[in-house]
Amino acid sequence: MTFKDIMKYIESEYSIINYTPCKVCGGNYIVKYSNEILIDDIPYDICHCVCSSCGYEKIFQFCAPFVKETLPVNIRAILN
Ligand SMILES: [Zn+2]
For residue 34, how far is its CA from the centre of ligand 1 (angstroms)? Predict the structure, then answer.
């Protein structure tokens, strides 16, 4: 997977977040922070989002096949 593919992937995650209205007020979510975790050896990108209007918090979970390839080896070892 090239860097361009990774960027496309991240962009699609962000567009999903941008097009998901807040379930409380219909406002827009913004990403507070995100982190990568491994579940059953499958990497996931966990985005902690907050509504920009009412502050409602929502977590978006994306399967992130690129994470494994981009993580430095020492971090991979810690996660495993
Ligand atoms: Zn809201």
Answer: 19
